[in-house]
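Deviation from plan, reported transparently: biotinyl-5-AMP complex.
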Amino acid sequence: MRVFRFDHLDSTNTKARELAASGFGEGTVVVAITQTAGRGRGDHTWHSPKGGIYLSAVVRPNVGRRVTDLSFLAGIAVMETIRNFLTAERVISVKWPNDCLIDGKKVSGVLGEALSSSENGLAVLGIGLNANVVASELAAFEGNAFPATSLLLEGGAPVNYEVVLATLVERLFDWYERYGKDGFSVVQQHWERHCRFIGEKVRIAAGAVYREGGRTGLEPSPVTATCLGIDEYGALVLSTMQGERRHYFAGELICYSR
Ligand code: BT5
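Because the crystal trials were delayed, the predicted structure below was used instead.
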């Protein structure tokens, strides 16, 4: 593993992509103290003030598998990391597809990006974790379905940034190795174990794309359904009020019942 550390970057994912394109391979890690243009999914941004952990790793999905596999294992690594810094009564959970929540508030997001085929099947896995981010920096997200929080806010005291970072890197590469050996099924099982809303009602926003039986559909309006878990491709499996089982491979959860 080779770690590159920076005070400021536009985006650690962008830097990791550049490094991968110039020959740095699997196991290259980029960390920044702040980002000026942190990215989320689609056109979303990731607010990246001092105190947060912004990390990207150059990785490779297993043959024939997609980069989304890696986003799920990153979520597990974050969960295992933050558990060490919170008291047992805090309810922590992964949220499909790529977030981690503490008592329903978003503390972390993961962004996996495939690189071009000329880069040898590599991908970049980016993790943002609000470690010591102060409340004023997160106020803009109060109106979100899942408002933002940090380990500082939830624990009531600053965490040791270096210890959190080292734990996260260790958990991430531990899971990466396991995935390389055992494939996605072990990731799927653990992700479901860390997901507190299996068996609960969730609501998915309009525009979600699903497969049901052999057909593909687009939800015209928000849908409330029971969460059954994820399938072998990482699609979210929901059972609708009509008892239909739908596999969502794109969409946004907007609410769940705890
Ligand atoms: C994500 O996107 O949650 C993925 C975020 C990945 C960020 C990391 S940081 C290191 C690496 N380098 C990058 O450039 N990116 C990765 P998404 O599910 O689309 O959620 C984004 C939404 O979360 C935004 O539209 C905001 O509403 C909200 N948000 C933005 N910043 C936040 C923060 N610091 N904490 C909590 N919520 C935030």
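Helices lie at 12-21, 68-83, 135-138, 151-155, 161-182, 184-193. We consider this an acceptable substitute for the interim report.
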